[in-house]
Amino acid sequence: MGDLEEGLLDWAGQQLSWQRDILRRLAAGETLGRADYRLYADEAERGALKEEAAWYTLPIFGDAAVLVPLDVTHLTATIAGGEPVQTTKILHLEGANGLAPGASLEFNLGGLTIIAGKNGSGKSGYTRIIKQLAATRASEQVLPNAFSPHIVPKAVVSYQVGSTLPATDLSWESDIGRVESPMQRVRVFDARSANVHLTESTEIAYVPSALQAIGEYTQVLQEVAALIQADIQNEQLQNRTWPALESGLGLDIFEHLGEQGSLDTIGALNPLTEEEQTELEKLPAKLHSLTASNPAALAVQARQRAGQLKLLARNLEVVAGKLAPQNTEASRAMRSDVVGAELEVAEARLVFDGAEMLPGTGNEPWRQMWSAAKEFAEGDEHEHSFPRDSTTCPLCAQSLDSEAQSRMELFAQFMSGEAQTKLSLAQSLRATDLTALSELPLDSLITQELVDLVGTYDENLSGVLLPRIGDATDLRDALVSTQEDDDVEAPDPVSLNSALIDAVTKLRAAATTEEETVNALETTDDSALAVAQLTARRDELIVRQGIVEERDAIGEQHDRSIRIARFELAKSSCATTSASRKNSDLSRSYVDKVCQRFEVEAKALGLDRVPVELVFDRSSRGVSYIKVNLKDAPQIAVASVLSEGEQRVTAIAGFFADLTESGDTSTLVFDDPVSSLDQEYRVLVARRLLQEAETRQVLVFTHDFSFVQYLYEEKLIDDKRKIAAGIAVAEDPDYIHIARSATGTGMVTAAETWRHVSVKERLGRLRVRHQSAAVLYRNGDIPAYEKELKDIVSSLRETWEVFVEQELLNNVVTRHERSIRTQRLSRITDLTDRDIANVDLGMTVSSRYMIGHAAPGTDGSRAESPDWLIAEIEALANFRKTILDRRS
């Protein structure tokens, strides 16, 4: 285990259990989704809520998730010297892209395997399947066949660890998720991962498994934090106000909700006794009799005016708070989230396309019906897991046959999808927000009498009060509207909020003035003092009675205050600072090694003519970035200098530099690695892949047939060097050709391969095809045999031509290349007249029987036998051996 893995494990041991579970899954290469984010948000909140608190009602916790902390077994980096993982077979079962059912590829355990085919032949389908199980810089979903979207993509990938253990079959389905296995040590390079290595801003993120896990970990934390914030917002939207109870004892309770003292006070309050109820009923009469004196009456009136002003101020404060700019924006965002989620659900409804459904299937009324059916089926009376365990329709009570059950599963897939989950959450938040908006005290907030009262203190305020309340009503109505365009003319929340807060301040100042008048009257008149005492007693009893009646609702708000505070703590546990700092620490030493190796790889791939280097750029939210700079000119944008091909070669150099540090020699998979590369770069990339294939299994998927030729040519050149130096040569590349068939893509075929493989390989394939043709001949199917005979002879003629070009004339002149290699002329001075006669004879015989050469009408001879055909094949093979032996 390397320094990076040890550093990651030491740091992970200090994280919370749910965070260590995230790191485990990310290190194993899993891609997490919204359901996973919700699970971890719940675990973070659960941990915070379990801390001791003054609960009015103790929370009930369900079963906790099963969490597995990260340890060394979950890291994809292999122990130095460990047996490599090699891919032996890919078997496509059904549903993946356009691959044919049963299409498969089998690979040799070591060396280079070329999987070639034209565009649309199925190469990307195979590599996407591998990417679901292997390590890649850019994960990619395997989509179902566009013409059969109901079929779940399935495949079996076989792998072998080392050369002695038997192969293991690993089943994969797109709806099951990632399966942990040694296949995660296999690495894939394709166009998507190249973009990660070299982004548009020319930053290369060389992230080994340890650093990659931390980088993705910070992104998951942000998603979890966003869900917790939504929960906080949902709790806050449910908060209520009790203006009539927010005085005296009630004020102390509401100011300290969530604290032990507030809970004790709420619990200690008792309902009014019969004596206290009688006392409260008699207080109005006593107050009336005492207010007969002028000072007392004035005190009562002043107190009433103060109460009216304070209540108006409090209600305006509630309105200002809910319609504050940030809350207004949040309301609009919640409305937009619902609209966006509905669009996503509409797109998800495509799962129904192609099936016979009633109009409206999948819309809002349908979803409500489904939810009701699910709730009924899973109730205490039935306890089914709907629809999986249901054999009877909960609506019509009819038995469900296999087809109906399959359709119910299709509906369940739709309802449990991320789009539907996202819509449900958005609708829930929106509904809560609409309730809060509709309960704003706007419609009966103020009367003309109250406006006149305000005017005695501030004439300007009384003049703008009604218009401002009207503006608040308009803004509230715009936010309640389901159409975003309806609030185009809505008042500006910033200016409205400022005006409302200003009004609250002035109203409370006026209320204070009235209360000072009450105090002055009470100190100068006994009856006024008595009125004050009776009024205080009345208010005390009313507040107490109101709190007792609302005890459970207030207790819930008390608990809500605790939950909000605890959720804030849970959200703070999602801070990414620690991960970013650890990423920076681990990155520094790793970056130095990668940069040094990159320089070696870049030079080997021909980038020495472009003065580029890698330097550590930054660490952001747990992700390290290495920037490609121009040497001695870092201020110049690299993209303005490097061509598209040079950028691709830069990414390949980075990929190999990363591998050098890993110490793992498991399979490498390349999907069209030379796109955008010119001839010189392709030759160098071919040479580098061949070099890598000497120590590990390398699979190259490509549609570029000239690149295939370069691979064979570079292998031949390298073999000659090794032979001259007395070094054993590696096996020749294995060649697999795939094409589209009537049942789909990805089918292995012997057709369309003759221009792209070596002479030796061609001869081997000719012998195999001869055997198949001989079977037709022996079975008496002469028409089919004659057709196959002509095709094989045509291929034999092509093989003669390639032999002349590549081996007899030593590639002095090669088709599709501009260069003439005059230095190779020295090898062809040994040609004799007999050699020329052999070539002429072989090609003349082939011309007589090949496709495209019509026989004269008088030619009634029957087709030559399989014995003749194999003799012609072996004639070329023997002549080739004579030439090669002579020159060796």
Core attributes:
27 helices; 14 strands; four-stranded antiparallel beta sheet; 888 residues; alpha/beta; seven-stranded mixed beta sheet; 56% helix
Written description of the protein model:
- This protein is an alpha/beta fold and 888 residues long.
- Among the domains are: 85-207 and 580-719, Rossmann fold (3-Layer(aba) Sandwich); 332-434, no CATH class; 758-887.
- The strands form three sheets. Strands 4-7-11-12-3-13-14 form a seven-stranded mixed sheet, sandwiched between helices. Strands 2-1-5-6 form a four-stranded antiparallel sheet, covered by helices on one side. Strands 8-10-9 form a three-stranded antiparallel sheet.
- A hairpin with a 2-residue loop joins strand 13 and strand 14.
- Helix 7 runs antiparallel to helix 8 and helix 25 packs parallel to helix 27 (866-887).
- The longest helix is centred in the middle third of the chain and has 32 residues, at 493-524.
TL;DR of this structure?
With 888 residues, the protein is an alpha/beta fold. The chain contains 27 helices and 14 strands.
Overall geometric form: elongated
Number of DSSP-assigned strands: 14
Rg from alpha-carbon coordinates? 40 Å
Proper CATH architecture of the domain at 85-207 and 580-719: 3-Layer(aba) Sandwich
- The pLDDT mean sits at 82
Taking the alpha carbons of the first and last residues, their distance comes to: 48 Å
Strand arrangement in the largest pleated sheet:
4-7-11-12-3-13-14
Q: So how many helices?
A: 27
Largest pleated sheet: 7 strands, mixed
Q: What level of helicity do the residues show?
A: 55-70%
Task: Fill in the CATH topology of the domain at 85-207 and 580-719.
Answer: Rossmann fold
CATH C-level label of the domain at 85-207 and 580-719:
Alpha Beta
